[in-house]
Amino acid sequence: MPRPRGFEQEAPPPAREWPISGRSARRAQRRPFVDAEWRSLAPPRAVGRSSLSGGKLAAAAVAVAEQRTRRAASRVRIVVTKAPTACWNRGSPLPRFSCGLRVGRTGRRDPDNRSLKDTMFARGLKRKCVGHEEDVEGALAGLKTVSSYSLQRQSLLDMSLVKLQLCHMLVEPNLCRSVLIANTVRQIQEEMTQDGTWRAVAPQAAERAPLDRLVSTEILCRAAWGQEGAHPAPGLGDGHTQGPVSDLCPVTSAQAPRHPQSSAWEMDGPRENRGSFHKSLDQIFETLETKNPSCMEELFSDVDSPYYDLDTVLTGMMGGARSGPCEGLEGLAPATPAPSSSCKSDLGELDHVVEILVET
Amino acid sequence: MFPKLSLRSMFHGAGGGNDIQWCFSQVKGAVDDDVAEADIISTVEFNHSGELLATGDKGGRVVIFQQEQENKIQSHSRGEYNVYSTFQSHEPEFDYLKSLEIEEKINKIRWLPQKNAAQFLLSTNDKTIKLWKISERDKRPEGYNLKEEDGRYRDPTTVTTLRVPVFRPMDLMVEASPRRIFANAHTYHINSISINSDYETYLSADDLRINLWHLEITDRSFNIVDIKPANMEELTEVITAAEFHPNSCNTFVYSSSKGTIRLCDMRASALCDRHSKLFEEPEDPSNRSFFSEIISSISDVKFSHSGRYMMTRDYLSVKIWDLNMENRPVETYQVHEYLRSKLCSLYENDCIFDKFECCWNGSDSVVMTGSYNNFFRMFDRNTKRDITLEASRENNKPRTVLKPRKVCASGKRKKDEISVDSLDFNKKILHTAWHPKENIIAVATTNNLYIFQDKVN
Questions:
Q1: Surface of A (317-336) touching B: CB under 8 A
Q2: In whole angstroms, what separates CA B188 from the centre of its chain?
Q3: How many CB atoms are closer than 10 A to CB B95?
Q4: Chain B within 8 Å of A99 (Cβ-Cβ)?
């Protein structure tokens, strides 16, 4: 079998800064530490440190676009294209509150679904859907009163989710790092739940216990952990030899790069095949269907990006060649490409491929 | 048991003033700034006598340096370290079942104590541990009957007389051969190996499990710690480092990503999931932030040579623990407190996940650890003084005394100080090692190895 290691050498010129192994080992040029405006985010109950320097962020609430791109260019290691917000803003006047990284869109492809209003990633990325203007206005009013602490917390959450999403296709991601980021996300979620800012999106989600919502975050890590055989295998001495555990993994791993796509497909497509999927995929689908879909939406609702194949993702080449808008991050996260309405043929193909994988 | 140190250093330790002055000695590695990824140094380790210094890199190679024998006449400096052996320890592999690469990067090297003429070391990548034998050959047999000197076979019919082959001296050749390969025991990435004081067994730790091996047996290992939850969704803590006690062959510790250290006794049970001691410092509520857990994650744990203390390194500090006291460390040293206000940015660029190592000096009086901008820090436990030094090629002349550096956290920057914002976070010193007997330190920057010595008058 040919070694895929060559990916690293095939990297395009220095503009690409996508981290391969979680740590930048490539950058030879000095990268000064430019920003000093972030203070440690402290929960509201901490004394004495509550003054979070709004600094650039407060200004960002008003005039975000230039600052975002500038900060993105100078700070973020991941290649966030300098694409202006225009390609995202489909008529929405809402400003963005982020540190320069974007996670995904809040809009859902299906305009009939009432779970559009997603205040978790309230960043003005809503598409203009008929019948949702009132939601948009309500969100707008809410946003303007959000404190900078919440903004920063939200940005941190966004950033963390992005980090979890960026799976490393060739090398296993660092489990310690993934666990720490997931714990951070959970901590933020807990706090937001306590604050009441983590509002349920879908009506049925409001009745859920907080644990459900928190647990769903674990799904994010599943791409990293699922490859180690996420489901219990008590009868297998996998401490001794990797063989038995690995036997269970092939289905997961082969599908791991694909399952978020499949799950995105699952959201809109038929669900008949769900029963035959691997267990971890099953759980993802369940989560998507019955539990709080809001954060899942965020991951998989890359509604307007066309399907990115693995090569494109890895080489970080986003942009002009694609038909839709192409903010770097969505494409860079291999877990998030979602078929758009223009890719029905892709859906059919994906369906077919997944069926084959499951049946073997 | 007490290593010989000069009288001056015994009483004064490291720090400013009359204490040890560190001088540049050597630098190994490429000069140019363009770093080849395979050359990135990933581990540094002195052997038990300090004569050999092993480094592992991201390309799976091990380079061993040997100290020259001291010139008794001139005692300006101790012997220099020159390349002794280079070999490819691990190759990149591909896990076909998971469709993932297994990196060949050497995560850890540990030397075995020398028992005969050969040297042995354990080197590990993410999945496989190998025992290497490094032996010297300075004689070779000559005078074979059936072979020519160059190895070609002679026609037996041309042999008219017989002779006995004899050993004749040859140029020194250092051979490294893999004697044992310990594979297929770890599902997750190995982060630590530690040789037991019985010199027969060793442990290897990955993110969720610790295995106990016998050096002679490669097809079997005992699992002694398993913190993998039945449901991976509930995973919140991983093992970050593990080490055997230097004197008690039944005791080992492992640290976690939540800032706890557990000491386990293998005599208590076969599976040491229940700790004998739990070392954890209560969180300081005034410093609490979303990053508290991440910065409390312990990146390295090292026992002192005496075995009484252990040192842990988390993101911002070094803590010394007395094994007899579990509720808090006896000493805490801040490595780069000025970064506390930058945690969010460090989280963004992933620097907050950097795993710094730490080390003791031979007498357990000074501890050392690395930082950013190619700075490294030493803390004298006796005088409570600390010093920041820089590993850079600017101080290239041998016996140049290193100038202490200072980082200005805020406010007016004095002359010679560096402000936090101009630190280079690409230049990090993660791996350092201290000679077990002398004041010689090896400091690894990204792709260079610096050797510093104390000034000998």
A1: none
A2: 20
A3: 16
A4: yes
Query: What ipTM does the predicted assembly reach?
Result: 0.90
The enclosing H or E element of B216 equals: none
Mean pLDDT for each 10-residue chunk of chain B (457 residues)? 48 49 91 86 96 96 92 67 96 89 95 96 96 94 87 87 92 95 95 97 97 96 96 94 97 96 94 93 90 96 97 97 96 96 92 96 96 96 95 83 88 82 94 96 95 85
Residue A93 to residue A91: CA distance in whole angstroms:
6
Maximum separation of any 2 CA atoms in chain A, in Å = 60
Q: What is the C-alpha to C-alpha distance for residues B183 and B202, in angstroms, rounded to an integer?
A: 14
Query: Which chain B residue shows the shortest CA-CA distance from A7?
Result: B101
Q: Using one digit for the tens of pLDDT, what is the confidence trace for B295-350?
A: 999 999 999 999 999 999 999 999 999 999 999 999 999 999 999 999 999 999 99
Q: How far is A282 from chain B (nearest CA, A)?
A: 14
How close does chain A come to B208, measured CA to CA in Å?
9
* Residues B411, A45: Cα–Cα separation, whole Å: 28
For residue B348, the distance in angstroms to the closest alpha carbon of chain A comes to 7
Q: Which of residues 116-145 of A touch B (CB under 8 A)?
A: none
Chain B, window 68-97: residues with a beta carbon less than 8 angstroms from a chain A beta carbon: 92, 94-97
Which residues of chain B from 205 to 264 reach within 8 Å of chain A, CB to CB?
207-209, 211, 220-221, 223, 226, 230-238, 240, 257
**Å from B397 to nearest chain A CA?**
24
Q: Find, in chain A, the residue whose alpha carbon is nearest to that of B445.
A: A25
**Is B371 near chain A, with CB under 8 Å?**
no
Residues of B in contact with A245 (CB under 8 A): 187
Q: How far apart are CA A155 and CA B393, in angstroms?
A: 40
DSSP assignments along B397-443, one per residue = STTPBPPP-EEE-SSSPPTTEEEGGG-BTT-B--EEEE-SSSSEEEE
Contact present, B397 and B416 (Cβ < 8 Å): no
> In the 8-state DSSP scheme, what is residue B3?
-
DSSP B372: B
CB pair distance less than 8 Å for B290 and A5: no
Q: Of B289, B377, B298, B302, whose CA–CA distance to B341 is shortest? A: B289
The domains located in chain B, with CATH, are 24-133+180-454 (2.130.10.10)
Retrieve residue A123's tokens: 């960043």
Residue count of chain B: 457
The single-letter DSSP state of residue B153 is B
Angle at A137 between CA A132 and CA A142, to 5 degrees: 125
Interface of B with A in 384-413 (CB under 8 A): none
Say how many Å lie between the first and final Cα of chain A, rounded: 20
For the record, the structure tokens of B266 come out as 């293998």
- First vs last Cα of chain B: how many Å apart? 26
Under a CB-based contact definition with an 8 Å cutoff, are residues B332 and B317 in contact? yes
Helix (H) or strand (E) segment spanning residue B219: strand B217-226
> For residue A164, what are its two tokens?
């979890």
Q: How far is A341 from chain B (nearest CA, A)?
A: 31
Whether B297 and A180 have beta carbons less than 8 Å apart is answered as yes
Task: Tell me if the pTM is above 0.80.
Answer: no
Cβ atoms within 10 Å of B181's Cβ, excluding its own: 12
Which string of DSSP letters, residue by residue, matches A25-39? ----S--B-----PP
Q: Does B297 sit within 8 Å of A25, measured CB to CB?
A: no
**Closest by CA position to B15, among listed B390, B404, B386, B438:** B386
A244 inside 8 A of chain B by CB: no
Angle between helices A210-225 and A175-195 (to 10 degrees): 160
User: Which structure tokens are listed for B174?
Assistant: 């250092």
